[in-house]
Design a protein that fits this description.
mainly alpha; 2 domains; 3-stranded antiparallel sheet; 8 helices; 3 strands; 7% strand
Length: 170
């Protein structure tokens, strides 16, 4: 209570107190089954992202960047638009992600059919980074399967792909 009084008396303290109380409440809450599909899928996405981000933590790459490297490895000279479509992200996010990869020296771009189109390919450094991180990525895949069960993980992956395909088609 003394801490609460001190914080309340401080000019920024009321906000700090509110943030602290809110954080403590969240710490004691357990994950809830939410009423809508969107919120539930976002819960899953955040949990999976945390698992994979931990694996890549000291590599300097985020999950989205690693995924882009995987696509570039399988489909060299892919355009920004094609990469965005393959991953299921918007054009702006793809452009930003690819710019970070280029800045790190992991990919290079060239002019496509017209000056506005960019084609992307991994550099030797990008290929080496992908090879070096592959064992960690596979470890994350195995951890995911271990926590969910192999059949459940495979079913979730398939159902997620079907859902994304159907929801993104017009």
């Amino acid at each position: 209570m003394a801490l609460a009084r001190k914080l309340a008396d401080h000019p920024a303290g009321a906000g700090l107190l509110t943030s602290h109380v809110y954080a403590c409440i969240l710490c004691t809450m357990k994950l809830q089954s939410l009423p809508c599909y969107c919120a539930t899928l976002r819960q899953v996405a955040r949990a999976v992202t945390v698992l994979y981000e931990e694996v890549l933590a000291d590599s300097g790459l985020h999950v989205t960047q690693y995924t882009a490297l995987q696509v570039l490895d399988h489909a060299p000279n892919v355009t920004t638009t094609e990469l965005a479509q393959a991953i299921g992200i918007d054009q702006t996010t793809a452009t930003r992600t690819l710019a970070l990869i280029r800045k790190s020296g992991l990919a290079t771009d060239s002019v496509g059919k017209d000056r506005r189109e960019r084609c992307w390919a991994l550099t030797a450094k990008g290929q080496a980074q992908l090879r070096a991180l592959r064992p960690r990525w596979e470890a994350a895949q195995q951890a995911f399967e271990k926590r969910l069960g192999r059949m459940e993980a495979t079913a979730l992956k398939k159902a997620s792909y079907v859902a994304a395909s159907r929801l993104m088609s017009n």
